[in-house]
Design brief:
Blueprint: E1 10-12, E2 15-17, H1 26-42, H2 65-68, H3 78-92, H4 117-150, E3 159-162, H5 198-205, H6 218-221, E4 225-228, H7 248-256, E5 263-264, E6 267-268, H8 278-283, E7 294-298, E8 301-306, E9 309-313, E10 321-324, H9 340-357, H10 375-379
Antiparallel strand pairs: 1-2, 3-4, 5-6, 7-8, 8-9, 9-10
Length: about 375
């Protein structure tokens, strides 16, 4: 089924379900199933692990009318004004240090005040639905927390919330007011709509970072991370440091007090490459000692992070850029030419990592436009 759809063909345990039109909302069903799992698990009187993976607010933009109504008019000021307000709010809350850089304005995003009246109505509707999807997800997170409290397990449960990486850039070509690859079959927000946020609003969502999903700049792969454990973690803390999704498994193993198996069911396990975050979460240590850089590759885009230094390149140019993230998280000043030794060191380590992990040169399997889904239409 389409993500977060109001009415689509769906299966559960290989059994096809047939809910009435607009009677089934995927985010609610994910939350309801999580609550059912907690009730069933409670009968076993054993520790539990719950992986709760909402698809919202990923596209398509679809939400319940009652949630959309809450956000009517909330985005009337447009992305330019709202971005400045978010930057100020981030500084006030201590999330963005006053001396940190902010990514420059995206030249592909038009000025809000230069849009026509109809264009503004269309774009406002998109973000109202997007916010409604986040609101509904928050409601379902609340249902799960209430169930954990009702089962009296809230003081002894670690809850980690982490979002998908980076808001989605690109535009919608099928829509007369946009430029992308999504076909709409109904008004934005309804079960017939398959629209998405698009780059104009992704520019706001990624404030104050550079670029979008798929790219290896900070706006492409940075994710909010919130940890909650009343008996262990002091509330209201903002820790500065670098974590990675690969750190979650070592964290959970250490918390559970068990060793990661070297072999399981006769199969040799791959070693864990992350580091436990418990020292940061429980002991107020600001940084996990990694002993080695972190590496990324996605569709030919590459990055290395080693302490304050961030090495990044965009496919297909492969020219390395270097940023001092300690002072320039907005990635506004490329200092690669001033630091050739650091570039050479980190790039050599990247290629060693890529070879060890089997990263394939993207150009060897990248599809041509006519080979992609809908390629015939695109080729014309």
């Amino acid at each position: 089924m389409w993500k977060n759809t109001l009415s689509r063909k769906i299966n559960r345990n290989n059994e096809e379900l047939h809910p009435k039109d607009d009677s089934y909302y995927f985010t609610d069903e994910i939350g309801n199933n999580a609550v059912t799992f907690l009730d069933e698990q409670n009968k076993e009187n054993k520790p539990f692990f719950l992986y709760l993976a909402f698809t919202a607010p990923h596209w398509p933009l679809q939400a319940k009318p009652v949630d959309i109504a809450k956000y009517r008019g909330k985005f009337d000021e447009g992305w330019d004004v709202l971005r400045e307000k978010r930057i100020q709010k981030l500084k006030e809350n201590g999330i963005l240090p006053a001396d940190q850089t902010v990514a420059p304005k995206d030249p592909e995003v038009p000025e809000w005040n230069k849009l026509t009246y109809d264009e503004k109505q269309f774009w406002k509707a998109k973000m109202e639905v997007y916010a409604a999807m986040v609101d509904n997800m928050d409601q379902n997170v609340g249902k799960v927390l209430e169930k954990i409290k009702a089962l009296k397990k809230d003081q002894n449960t670690l809850i980690i919330f982490i979002s998908d990486n980076g808001a989605q850039g690109g535009f919608n070509t099928y829509n007369p007011l946009g430029r992308g690859l999504v076909r709409n079959e109904g008004p934005v927000g309804t079960s017939g709509s398959f629209d998405y946020q698009e780059q104009n609003w992704a520019y706001l969502s990624n404030t104050p970072l550079q670029q979008y999903k798929n790219n290896m700049h900070e706006g492409g792969f940075s994710s909010p991370f919130i940890a909650w454990f009343p008996s262990k973690i002091k509330a209201g803390r903002i820790d500065k440091g670098t974590g990675h999704i690969i750190d979650l498994a070592p964290t959970f193993y250490q918390l559970a007090g068990i060793e990661y198996p070297k072999e399981y069911n006769g199969v040799t396990s791959n070693p864990l490459v992350g580091k436990s975050l418990l020292p940061v979460l429980f002991d107020n240590v600001s940084q996990v000692d990694r002993g080695a850089p972190l590496f990324w590759e996605r569709a030919g885009n590459r990055a290395v992070r080693d302490g304050r230094w961030k090495l990044v390149s965009i496919y297909p140019s492969y020219e390395w850029e270097l940023y001092d993230i300690e002072t320039d998280r907005g990635e506004t000043k490329n200092v690669a030419q001033q630091n050739p030794g650091i570039v050479n060191k980190l790039s050599a380590e990247y290629f060693e990592w890529a070879d060890q992990t089997g990263v394939v040169e993207y150009s060897k399997f990248k599809l041509k436009p006519e080979q992609m889904p809908g390629g015939a239409a695109l080729k014309k």
